[in-house]
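One-letter codes give the sequence; the fold follows as tokens. Both lines appear below.
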Amino acid sequence: MKTNYLYFLLIFLSIIWGSSFILIKKSLLVFSDYEVALLRMVIAWLILIPITFKKFFSLKKKIILPILVVAFLGNAFPAFLFAKAQTQINSSTVGILNSLVPIFTILIGFLFKNKTSTKQLLGVLIGFVGAVLLFAGDVNLGLLNSYSLLIILASIFYAINLNTIKSFLKKTSAVEIAGYAFFIIGPISTFLLLFSDFFDKMNNHSGAYEAFFYVFILGAFGTSFAIIIFNYLIIKTSAIFTSSVTYLIPIIALTWGFIDGEIINENHIFSLLIIILGVYLTNK
């Protein structure tokens, strides 16, 4: 029963993050990628303040460095890297490059002395093959440019974040980890937002309030709520199993496409089955 619950959380997390692409797309109709990245962090911070405000001032010194890693490498830097990269490369390419996270998690895990079973390694490789096959007909290798390196760098940051939480923060609650991290990057994001065109757009752009609503949902659910689930999964399972969410996210994106009228073929179904097998093995 407990294992089923963890799989449910992983799927639920993939639904949240897989649906975030739509929210980002609608937000970018008004705001720049820079503004969307800042806004989602500010909103996440404001939501988490009531939960961790008092606890922040009793933060133990021994976890300050790991929390800084989570704040910047696990949240702030990837938000900007993904936003910048997606202005120059398509979503399919991003999907494949983002699927490198579990592989980087294993490689970096050796530095953290985190053990990887043969089944987990096999699951990661199978899942990656499934992700590549899923996008095989959509990816143009000519689109792999310097911006692709930003996604790869973000994937490495995510892998470091996963191993950091598993190795140094497993005795800290998932909510506290998220709260501490955003208590650091939230004020910085707010300061940077003051020097953007956000307020001017809110006053003068006819679609600003609608776009802000999408960013609010993105920050509230796609960031703060999702990060708490993400942290919880790392603590309760393994960094490798949790990183496999990057294999499930494309499935959700594909489902949204089907709802929107896009065609799903036999290759998609076959690829999805391979991904599901890979994810299953990562928790063995």
Observations:
- The mean pLDDT is 86.
- The chain has one domain: 2-282.
- The two ends are 15 Å apart (CA to CA).
- Residues 39 and 231 are 21 Å apart (CA to CA).
